[in-house]
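Please check the following for our workbook:

***
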Amino acid sequence: MKVSSRLTNITGGGSGGWDLFNRARAMKQSGIPVTELTIGEHDTPTDPSILNAMHAAALAGHTGYTTIGGLAPLRERVAQRVEARTGVATGPENVLIVPGGQAGLFAALMATCEPGDTALYIDPYYATYPGTIRAAGAVPKPVKARSRHGFQPAGEDIDAAADSAAALLINSPNNPTGAVYSGRTLADIAEVCARREMWLISDEVYDTQVWSGTHVSSRALPGMAERTLVVGSMSKSHAMTGSRIGWIIGPQEAIAQIANLTTHTTYGVSGFTQMAACHALDRGEPFEAQIAAPFRRRRDMVMAQIAAQNVVRAIPAEGAMYVMLDLRATGLSGDAFANLLLDTHHVAVMPGESFGAAAAGHVRVALTVDDARLETAIAQLLDLAAHETVPNPG
């Protein structure tokens, strides 16, 4: 029997950029010590107090079916957090709890795109974006951002691609580039979306990881609250990646319709996990800052290492738990360099090509191991780059 083309075409016929990651994992399983700087997974587990709250909630009976849109206490807490951080009036009716940010992205695309509609996304992009668009029945169309501009997308490029597009998907603070979109960038995005009558889907899961500049939620832009769906998550802000707790923020009518979708797909999120999320949110901004602090420190450390040489260029890492490195001076593709680094030093980084054509000749480094191992790995990367660089005969 044949599996549907909806599934077989999700990755567009490619691997989705996971070849090197899978090879690194296979090396580790065979006993080879590999320093993994690939995925955005915290190197510390979920805080014990959150796990204790989860355990207590399960023992108290929160193990059955839950309210599809999310437990009222959690929706209220999320609404309060969003309103406090963005200044936009937000109530529980604007909040839908979903099993992680990825489920939120899929649901948001289902809500904004008819089958066959075009959905724009910014290149470089988080690896699942084009596949999620295809899974929702839409047609993905990338809009390139440029390395020389710190990967800030240009309004005129979005506008040029926007004919008949139903939605634009953005991500700031950005994975993989570390860019935090400027006020000018966001204003241009808002202007194009309003004029073109497009929905804006804003992936803001890294909103607590801002190292320079200011994160502004797209929903807070003038006139954008009624055409924006914001996807958030507990994964990065509270080191709860495996708990699968996320949310969508948007207009009340849209949220109600997306809740109807979840009735026919996920059927809600476990109650004991939602109660643990309530406990985590009650710990407030100091706890979120504590979770983010190692990545700020490591970002500063890596940027200092990069500044001490002149072969590898770092894209300004303004937020998120990554640094994007420009290796084009070596003459190697990001894919070739990353595979060579894995073979010679057993250090795994993600090739820029995993995140789109705009990131060719780059690699993404996840700041997700302890400081000493990270410093050693970056030194090995820089040494390899220096030895692989082709001298300029001029």
Observations:
- The first helix runs from residue 5 to 8.
